[in-house]
Amino acid sequence: MRLSLLSPSGEADKGASVAPSPNPTAGSEPRPAQADAAPARVVLDDTAIRRALVRIAHELVEHNDRLGDLYLVAIPNGGVPLARAIAANLQQIAGLEVPVGILDTTLYRDDLVLRGERPPLRRTEMPSAVDGRVVVLVDDVVSTGRTIRAAMDALMDFGRPQAVQVVGLVDRGHRELPIKIDYVGKNIPTQRDERVELRGLQGGLEGPLEVVVKPERSEGDHRARGERSEPERSEGDHRARGRAEGAPGEGGSR
Amino acid sequence: MMGRDLLAIEDLDRADLERILETALRMDEVGRRDVKKVPTLRGRTLINLFFESSTRTRTSFEIAGKRLSADVVNFTPSSSSMKKAESILDTAMTLDAMDPDAVVVRHAVAGVPKRIADALEAPVINAGDGAHEHPTQALLDLFTVWQEKGRLDGLTVTIVGDIVHSRVARSNLYAFSKLGAEVRLAAPPTMLPPAVEALGVKAYTSLREALEGADVVMLLRIQQERLDGCFFPSIREYAATFGLDRAKLRYAKDDAIVMHPGPINRGVEIAHDLADRRPSVILDQVRNGVAVRMAVLYLFAGRNPRREG
User: For the residues of B195-207, what is the DSSP string, one character each?
Assistant: First the structure.
């Protein structure tokens, strides 16, 4: 742990990765991403993210009877600052002290065999037992549902939760598994060859955050087939959305 | 850059070593859970091919593989049928035809894992070859020191004992030097390889001088079965001059730790009362061996290019 010699481990390596942004100017102007010269479109700025997380905290209170059983479990790296912010909101709204855990899903992925290089592992830290708790998985960007599937498997190895719910700051569609997101920050329909990223304006995930959409880098996603091209329609009113009605690809799971 | 096989620490660079150690840190966390098993290598096969007997290393690899959900097969050929290099290769290729995702090889002759790696499709992990290298031992030693001290850069590590015959010493010498530690070797002159200082380490024939200011004291096993009396006059004399006890340990730093790759000869390399308690971390080394080997299997096993889609 506190290892000065080694670099901070586990920088993002999953569908929605966290890249340090090149310059710390705030605002929502699209700016060029560093490696690929293509433009990155900001779809959620810091204010919108904060607002969505406040709303989600309210929804959590509304939809759960036994608030004392809540346990926020973040999927790193993007889920971590989001889960912490939701925990702070719950504290403000309902005076709740909700534990926040971190659960790396890398060892449970279903695509390791397909990749030559093994992705770096990230920290897992589960401060309380999950038995009997209502575990709320928190991820930044949900797409295929495979990360959530992996997280559920990992969770079951830690115990038997009373229920599992999912928070996704962004639902970008393209679901490949029957996974439902219970609390959505915003639905952002995307093309498969695009990349959606939560990133910090000052690099890392400290301070103000934003969500950007940019073209997929050449090698990143092994599923970049680009066969679906949906029209770009930003889901304007995300405020009243409770339970991910309208998440594309959810088809028939509930 | 890390290649397909793990044959020697000498082949790795600093970034490779750091990557393995960071991965081991996460694996160590898995080993502390209630359910100590993850599905990462489910459906993969790991073959332990041990031409030289070793219960400890083989068991450690076996547990590591099982914690990653791999199917682990132990293959221990009888030494009598293995006298020719050709038959070693034949054995290895027979096993390779069963499509393993990694083969862990130990052999009494230096270079055999390399020869096997050249012939096989599967990645090969060296589990000790003659007096050449024992890379996973060095990795678990690095990991143990890192956990104890929080860093490796700038530490002083004194390796004591039969340096010339020791693959553990060799791998550790590379490993600790590459990560910025100062490595000292202490042994009777007959057990110091000639011109070893060319590798950037310091050699001592006085244990006291070698221990001065050391953060880590690493003892090597005196392999009584392999030495026939021409290296030192007697075991008793070796124990008196190079065996570590609490009195001699005072020359090292106050917070120095004592390591040993095992199995220990109590009363020879290490005094009875020193082996079982702090500052000895011998059992932590064994524990860390599993995490480090899980990391190695995660990073090397099943990356067989033949299977990539």
Answer: TGGGGT-EEES-H
Strands B257-259 and B182-186: unpaired
Binning pLDDT at 50, 70 and 90, where does residue A150 land?
Answer: very high
How close, in Å, is residue B285 to chain A by CA atoms? 17
Portion 91-150 of A in contact with B at CB < 8 A:
104, 107-108, 112-114, 116, 118, 120-124
Across the interface, of B19, B68, B151, the residue whose CB is closest to A4 is B151
Cis peptide before A22 (omega within 30 of 0): no
Q: Tell me how far apart the alpha carbons of residues B153 and B146 are, in angstroms, rounded to a whole number.
A: 10
Is the minimum CB–CB distance between B176 and chain A shorter than 8 Å? no
- CATH 3.20.20.60 is right for the domain spanning B9-133+287-307: no
Q: Which CATH architecture has domain B135-282?
A: 3-Layer(aba) Sandwich (3.40)
**Inter-chain contacts counted by CB atoms under 8 A, chains A and B:** 75
Q: What is the ipTM for the molecules in this complex?
A: 0.89
Among candidate residues B95, B59, B61, B56, the one with its CA nearest the CA of residue B77? B95
CB contact under 8 A, A120 and B34: no
- pLDDT one-digit tens code per residue, A74-84: 999 999 999 99
CA A186 to chain centre: 11
The model carries a pTM of: 0.85
Task: Tokens for A35, please give them.
Answer: 């490696």
Both tokens of B206, joined, read 């006085």
**Residues of A whose CB is below 8 A from B299:** 118
Return the CATH class of domain A47-188.
alpha beta
Tokens matching residue A67? 């608030």
Q: Which of B6, B18, B28, B40 is most worth mutating to test chain A (most A CB atoms within 10 A of its CB)?
A: B40
